[in-house]
Amino acid sequence: MAETDEKELNQLGALIIAFGTTISSAAETINLAEDQFDNDLLSIIGDGFQAFGAFLLGVTTFPDWLSFFGNWADGIGAATAAVGVALNRYDVIEDEEGTRLIILGDSLQTIGAGMATLSNYELEAYDFMVGNAAQSFGAGLKAVGAVVVESDSLQVGQFIVTAGTIIQALGANYVAGLELRE
Questions:
Q1: 3-class secondary-structure state, position 182
Q2: What distance lies between CA 124 and its chain's CA centroid?
Q3: Which InterPro entries has this protein been placed in (predicted)?
């Protein structure tokens, strides 16, 4: 793959992830403000975009294995969360099982973005490190928030999930901006 093509794929992947995290963040923010808002479809779409963007990044050549596996873990995590929401929405599985998939997906995203953060540190790409660390932290908060929701603290859990999606979106948009400047 030519260097220009790789650069464009990296930019496109980062933009798609930023778009997906922004959609997810908007859905969770509206859900926090309005009890009757059904954010499932927006969450599925947002996580779907995140997965697609991460998989695009996963097909480019990376200087190290941390970036490669980190992007794939991130993509698999976003896809898993989207599947969990969809299976819950359409009553294919019990809510508790779907929530477990969502928690697993968010946790995989945390690991994937964490691996990218470590890779950025090793490559001394400190600007990217900040954005990826924010994405990792935000995804982790989403997983924690889902656990809190499951323990019957809906309002507190939803607040944590919303904070996580906002932090994740800020990190993703920051990384996308850096990719476009390169």
A1: coil
A2: 23
A3: DUF6944
Full residue range of the structural domain in which residue 161 is found: 3-181
At a CB cut-off of 8 Å and minimum separation 6, what does 12 contact? 53, 56
Smallest CA-to-CA distance from 139 within 34, 51, 39 is with 51
Number of domains in the chain: 1
The Cα–Cα gap between 129 and 150 comes to: 32
**3-state DSSP: the chain helix, strand, coil percent, rounded to 5?**
85, 0, 15
How far apart are alpha carbons 168 and 88 in whole angstroms?
23
pLDDT in tens, 137-157: 999 999 999 999 999 888 999
* 114-128 residues labelled b (16+ CB within 10 A) or e (exposed): bbbbbbbeeeebeeb
The reported pTM is 0.94
Confidence of residue 1 (pLDDT cuts 50, 70, 90): low
